[in-house]
Specification:
Layout lengths: L3 E6 L7 H14 L3 E5 L4 H4 L3 E4 L26 H13 L4 E6 L1 H12 L4 E5 L15 H22 L2 E6 L6 H10 L3 E3 L7 H13 L5 E6 L5 H11 L9 E5 L11 H19 L5 E6 L2 E6 L12 H9 L11
Parallel strand pairs: 1-2, 1-4, 4-5, 5-10, 6-8, 6-9, 7-8
Antiparallel strand pairs: 2-3, 10-11
Helix pairs in contact: 1-9, 5-6, 6-10
The protein binds 6-O-phosphono-beta-D-fructofuranose.
Amino acid sequence: MNKTIGVLTSGGDAPGMNPAIRAVVRTAASQGCKVMGIYNGYDGIFDTNMEELGNQSLASIIDRGGTILQSSRCKRMYSPEGIDLARQRLQEQNIHGLVVIGGDGSLTGARELAKRGMPVVGIPASIDNDLAGTEMAIGVDTATNTIMQLLDRIRDTASSHRRCFLIEVMGRNSGYLALTTAVSSGASISVIPEYRYNMERIVSVLHKRFQDSKDNSIVILAEGVCGAQEFMDRMQQAMPGGEFEQEVRITVLGHVQRGGIPTHFDRMLGARFGELAVMGLLQQETGCMTALNKGRTTLVELDQVIGKKKHPAPELMRLARNLQIEFGDAVEV
Ligand code: F6P
């Protein structure tokens, strides 16, 4: 087909971006197209920081976390003039179609480019899993596995000292990571931004566990609620007499959640999304995003994704309740 497809990774990196890049390059080659790898997110368009990606660029990347193309949160894409310029630069470089791998902000930029006539297909990649229209984004599975393993380790030390741990996890405004890892790690409490938490109940769960001589209590706090120290202070104020009866330690997991070898699931998802994005572009699809729903990959309109709130799946909330994880009132914020 002799077309040139550009590919970039933007926003927070996510494990599985590299397998997606690999699938883009291989699929394009299978279809007789070449791929320009654009470095450093959208900044690479403005700075003409790009090069052709061939098989040699793909050596040993399938099992690498992060992104070989590197990433950025590009401020120049925030203004209409900036987006016009990016569109122009892509044209000057003879790029006929663009694959944007990233999260909410990155795909907002993709939609704007598509509106200006640039053929663009997005690939959802963000550990936050906050994009509407798809059940999963690249990186979520690896991040949840990492968090789960770290929580297992924390429970070892918590049990040894009969302590309570308050663990802050990432997710921006989404509680997905906090909620699902509470289930998979057997935490007692999960505090997420989508539901109003009930401090009285949190304190009483902790009190009861202590009275029942449970050897540990794990509270998982989504960063979208507030910082761990602030939550700790609020917890303390709610304790009878303003005192914890149990020792409490804080752990903020931080960026360790974003790194690491992509799991089988994320490699498969990267491969499936990368292939579909290229096939979509070659079939004149644009302004859309690859998605995984009910086990099937499809393309969904970015207009149906951007600015839409993704609610936690009701069956996930029911599961958490039935497993007696305290997460607050059944009132969505
Ligand atoms: O969007 C991914 C994410 O890791 C969020 O969970 C987190 O709030 C944010 O990025 C951190 O961004 P930065 O790497 O710029 O500190």
